[in-house]
Design goal:
Helix content is 22%, strand content 29%. The protein is an alpha+beta fold and 126 residues long. The protein has one domain. The chain has a seven-stranded mixed sheet with strand order 1-2-3-4-5-6-7. β4 (85-92) and β5 (98-104) form a beta hairpin.
């Protein structure tokens, strides 16, 4: 199994400046450029509008590496190889749980991992 910890660790590839976050196509906010990680925040089921979510999205971009590391460590613990899955989208629900949506590079498969934040710490829910 490949070591994929910290693969989203270059914070400079994420858009964390509130003024640089932009709503595209009415439903997506780029969290990183296509030439970087290509991750978008999906607004389709968001609990409120883009302007209200701006700070949430910018802060979440700073936490992507930590969240992905939790997923990777869980996969390693379970004996699974998750190295060919990449985050392509992130979203939230009315409780501000965070969903990382992964796409496989090898097979036609999409999966999502859900997190809850309590205080400053994230907990994987599923």
């Amino acid at each position: 199994m490949a070591n994929t910890l910290n693969r989203y660790g270059d914070l400079s590839k994420f858009i964390t400046d509130l003024s640089k976050l932009e709503l595209k196509f009415g439903e997506e906010v780029a969290m990183s450029g296509n030439k970087d990680y290509g991750i978008v925040f999906d607004m389709e089921d968001a609990p409120c509008g883009f302007e209200e979510l701006r700070p949430f999205i910018a802060n979440l971009a700073k936490d992507i590496c930590e969240l992905d590391n939790i997923v990777q460590k869980f996969a390693i613990h379970e004996g699974e190889d998750f190295s060919d899955y990449n985050i392509f989208a992130v979203t939230t629900d009315e409780n501000y749980n965070v969903y990382l949506i992964y796409d496989s590079m090898k097979v036609a498969n999409v999966c999502e991992c859900r997190f809850e934040k309590k205080g400053e710490k994230y907990y994987r829910l599923g």
